[in-house]
## 1
Amino acid sequence: MIKSQFDGLAILLLVGLCLLFGLNQVVVKFGLEGVSPLMQAGLRSIGASVLLIAWMLWRGEKILRRDGAFWWGMLLGVLFALEFLFIYMALNLTTASRTTIFLYTSPFVVALGVHLFVPGEQLSKVQAAGLLVAFIGVFVAFRDSLDADASLLGDSLALVGAFFWGATTVVLKASPQRHQSPARVLLYQLVVSALILPLLSWLLNEPGIVSLTPSVIGSLLFQIVLMAFVGYMAWFWLLSHYPASKIASFTFLTPLFGVLFAWLILDEQLTFDMVGALLLVALGIYLVNRPARRTGKIV
């Protein structure tokens, strides 16, 4: 059953996941010292698939089952893999800051998709405005680093990546996959991407695995265990219990946490714009999740 409003557990879990996802942006940089991007994502999916299958077997949950959701699961896996393909292609052509801004148009894709295809999850005008305010907050956070190294193709590829990210959520909520357990939903995406991403890495002539230093191995373990297994499992649990567009509004916190961790761990610059950006994102999240006012006449 979908709950219309977040409770304390959901808010705590969402903020924690955004912290985890933001930290992952920094951890990936350590992994790139020894493993190319798509291969790194592929190894993450392979390792997390093994953990997830072991978890499902331990709990007695069937891995293969005739439930009418197989092809929808395969579609989700392909969308999941394409998302990473276009994001990494964008990063090769434009700056990380520009990629981040265009990537976080994804909540708008989710909002429009669930409005059209998922009954009962439509956003009001105030909630739509909240998404826009939160997006402006992300823009403010990254505007100082929007330099001249721009590429129309790179920006367009980032937008395509955002579309596939949002489309994954919409297909999940609008298809029979919404009745699956979070583990089964995640299994399709991990297994399909585990097959596709290493192949794409080879086709695009990535160097693959270059060096497995302790920091690179630590980065891979973090991504496999905490990000792809624990983090995504919790994410899909949330999607099975709460409105997708409201969950998507919290993702605007992720790049801000990413900047914060980059400052703490990598000693990257932190600007005063971050304070204003955080306030805007918080205001946007509040507007999206504010309970609707009930109006009525006393008869």
## 2
Amino acid sequence: MGGNELPLQRIEPVSVSGRGLPRWLRRTSGPVALVLLWHILSVTGVLPSEVLAGPSTVLSSAATLIETGELQEAMWVSLSRALTGLAIGGSIGVTLAVIAGLFRLGEDLVDATMQMMRTVPNVALIPLLIIWFGIGEAPKIALIALGTAFPLYLNVYAGIRNVDQSLIEVGRTLGLSRLAMIVNVVLPGALPSALVGLRYSLGIAWLALVFGEQINATAGIGYLMANAREFFQTDVIVVCLVVYALLGLGVDFTVRTLEKVFLSWRPAFNGT
């Protein structure tokens, strides 16, 4: 070999080459700037404590609630309600979506009813839920289940019906049975839409939880908020709102992780 060889260099795609600040730093800059602005407005008196407590007061209240164990207990109760309602509503939504998506008869029997019911505001059903289930845990979980069933139904149904027809033809050419076609082609093809529906359902679960915990709650984040409202404790209210946000962020992160695990076979655009 000649002596004019160029040294070998590793070539990286532009999409993965590092540019500028790390991504985690860019993602946290917005929330940090917002908290900093909130602190400045509080210490300068532009934002009175009667209107909204400052970050230092909120942190102090959070530490007190953690020390007494009230916050952990409330988080566990609220998380249990949300996940139980999601499990019930999600199971119903996915089951009906599979029936309507796979079979024309199922679509005729299920889809029109689901499309009609999803337009009814869930909050408007609270009086009926109280009459049917009382004022215990059942109406709270039922409200969450109703809210989470429809996003999963719509997305799973759309995912099944939008499976590439060429994949179906390939399956038929390979001689796959109807069951094998559903298990190996249709359901994996509908999985991306199902995970999107799950993310929507989780977001709605937290919204429904806020309303549900106003129904004679004796525990949970909503109960803490209701008590704080009675005594104009804006610091405790902010603590509860932050907890709601962090719980929602946590479960959303879980779903995003599931997407990376189960959809690793699918190339996707990650932004520029």
## 3
Amino acid sequence: MLHGKVAVITGAGPGLGRTLARLMAAEGASVVVAARTAATVEKIAAEVPGAMAVPADVTSPADVEALAAAVTGRFGRLDVLVNAAFPGTHRKNVLEMSPADLASWRAAVDIGAYGTLLACRFLAPLMVERGEGAIVNVTSMSSRKGYAGRSDFAAGKAAAHLLSHCLADELGPYGVRVNCVAPGWIASEVLDDWMRVRAAAEGVGYQDVLARDLSATALRRIATEEDVARAIVFLASDRARSITGATLDVNAGQLFT
């Protein structure tokens, strides 16, 4: 679906970012992976044929501008931008936050919101020049449903969600589409660890928590990284050429919107 296209993935970590990079390459794209930690993106790029690694902090205008220059220098064009950074959440209620927690809260929001804005500001012009392109911002179920202790993550992703609507309206006349993919829980070691923490706190077994969480989804399963990546690839492809300003939920029926 992406044959001959050049795709940049920001926030390309070892989970969803790596899975997405592999899938995009398998679908025919030339992939650029960008994230703050050089060792991380270099490892991912080494696993993806022809991939390019660019260390970049998405909250740094200089880093993101340098990323755009690197893409131009290597490929001379850009067709797809995926903003996939997932800031951590500190699981602190607002009234419990220390000054250090407040600083961490702001940093998480900067990654989710400001980082998405910067990537679009410096990379979207490469698509505007050509009169076509696709931006997919990975938001979250949390961008539309708040949970105690997750206000940092939710606020950043909610900002990216509405930013996407604004950008869809701004960039549409130039042939650039902007959409969101909103995952819910994603099957991973991180999720398993969180379930174990909750099980210990409640004095129950891991399987009890897993069964309860599965029962909260209509499909009685938890979406995988590949499930989310395939949704992103669809919105990035020409098969979605008349879709912009939309959000595709990938949560196995955990939340209906």
## 4
Amino acid sequence: MLAMRAAAGAVSKGDLIGLLSRQFLGTPYGADMLVGSATQPEQLVVDFRRVDCFTYLDYVEALSKSATRDQFVANVIATRYVDGQVAFPQRRHFFSDWSQTDAAPARDITAGLGAGTVTVAKQLNAKADGGQFLPGLPVVDRDITYIPSDAVSSDVIGNLRTGDFIGAYTDIAGLDVTHVGIFVATPDGPVFRNASSLAANNKVVDSSFVDYVHTTPGIVVLRAQ
């Protein structure tokens, strides 16, 4: 993959993400690939044999910035962890964490993609019953802007670029999205490239973007820096 990246030459960041992400098609899905918690030391995991939806994005983003194996590992760390510290509290656990610091991998472009966006005040990590999704981590107050699925028009899709990171917005208290993937424009129409846990897939697949969007409450869109 590093050789492929080098051979790609002067292409856009989005096209590079599209090229590299395609190499993972068919890779088996693996749930909860990362190791670490408030009570278990964090381990740096780099495993191409199986990916979940977040580690898939980690690897593709890191590969797009790397010329050597050592650079790739360093870029996985920089992508996955705030300030490059391999520690559970520093991990970017939520999709919106990818756009929250100066050195974050991406920026949130959702609000500028078209009319009809909705902004919701969320308390990330706080379950509706008072518990936490990630024990030992704080609750974070954050406004999440998303485009409702019925507002994802042809104009909105026309403003998306290959390589944009797509999060499936959720109404569940304490979460921003429930799944993530990559937007790719193809000759046969736009696809949602993702590590799918669905029994019919259980691997990295290209799904119809339009069809997928209509199975979700809406989308959050980040663009790689």
